[in-house]
Amino acid sequence: MTRAEPELPPLREVIAAYELRARKSLGQNFLLDLNLTGRIARAAGPLAGYRVIEIGPGPGGLTRALLAAGAETVIAIEKDTRCIAALGPLSDAYRGRLDVIPGDALTFDVETLGGKPTKIIANLPYNIATPLLIGWLSPRQWPPAWDSLTLMFQKEVAQRIIAEPGGKAYGRLSVITQWRCEAEILFDVPAGAFTPPPKVTSAIVQITPRAAPLAEIDQADLERITMAAFGQRRKMLRRSLSGLDVSAPALIALAGLDPTARAEEIDVAGFCALAKAYAELRETG
User: Fold this and answer.
1) For residues 276 and 279, what is the distance between their CA atoms, to the nearest angstrom?
2) Of 262, 219, 218, 221, which is closest to residue 238 (Cα–Cα)?
3) Amino acid 120: pLDDT
4) 51-55 and 98-102 as β-strands: parallel, antiparallel, unpaired?
């Protein structure tokens, strides 16, 4: 037996009623195309039995799609008090299934929610998208509290997340994401789908956690190595890693890599080997 969907006003009426002019300072671009929000919800896979976390719901276009797609509950994290008020009627219509939490998503800890199956699905504010992703990839324990991430990024950022060695898009974000997860771009979203339209194309990225990371290393070590290597990506490893607090030649040799290689030529496994070697050299002094 399917649930009857409540009658809801058009999103443009909600925007007008609550004077929801998008604020650049909050990275707001509202997605009003219900066909597109429905496609995003479906792209995340079955939602029945899942708790869904949404970041920056705005007037609630994607929120409606997630609830209509069968999410058991949606926890919407919203910083804008205008949008919180606008989501009130939607919460009433889906009584008990939508929980709007006022606050900053950057300080919201998903790990505190408990063990219910969880998916994070969101049209992320562009100005905090990368820090949010890094935070979700950095829990104290792995696998994480979430089963999947279905997220909208600027296409340029999406390409960096999934990039393979050898190209300009490959960098720190690629390595840190792929060390613990598998990622793919599902589809693009044109600028004209938003109000107001941004100056860039966006893309939906699906990120699924690996059962175990590619290597048992400390994330802080991996971040130090990738920051040094990609901070001078045109230089050979023997130069780009020379600023670390260990011998660069010893580090590269212990990792089994070519000292004349450049950062963009090293795959994720190679960076994991560098992070492991870095930890070993620091321990031995």
Assistant:
1) 5
2) 262
3) 98
4) unpaired
* Domains of the chain and CATH, by start: 11-209 (3.40.50.150), 219-284 (1.10.8.100)
Cβ partners under 8 Å of residue 70, min gap 6:
3, 46, 47, 48
User: Quick one: average pLDDT of 220-236?
Assistant: 97
Task: Name the residue among 98, 67, 70 with its Cα closest to residue 84.
Answer: 98
Where helices occur in the chain by DSSP H, the ranges are: 11-17, 34-43, 61-68, 81-86, 88-93, 129-136, 155-162, 172-180, 219-231, 237-240, 248-255, 268-284
Q: What is the pTM of this model?
A: 0.94
* Identity of the amino acid at 220: A
Residue 2 has pLDDT above 60, yes or no: no
Asked if 182 and 204 touch (Cβ cutoff 8 Å), the reply is no
Range of lowest pLDDT (53-62, 91-100, 109-118, 154-163): 109-118
Give the pLDDT confidence of 252-281 residue by residue, as tens digits.
Answer: 999 999 999 999 999 999 999 999 999 999
Q: Is 56 left (phi over 0), alpha (psi -120 to 50) or beta?
A: left
Cβ proximity of 259 and 252 under 8 Å: yes
Please, which residues have CB within 8 angstroms of residue 88's CB and are 6 or more apart in sequence? Answer: 100
Taking a C-beta distance cutoff of 8 angstroms, is the pair 241, 263 a contact?
Answer: no
Average pLDDT, the chain: 94
Q: What residues contact 146, with CB distance under 8 A and at least 6 apart?
A: 53, 110, 118, 119, 120, 136, 209
Sign of CA dihedral 178, 181, 187, 192: negative
Binning pLDDT at 50, 70 and 90, where does residue 4 land?
low
Phi first, then psi: what are they for 169, rounded to 5°?
-75, -25
The C-alpha atoms of residue 203 and residue 229 are separated, in whole angstroms, by 27
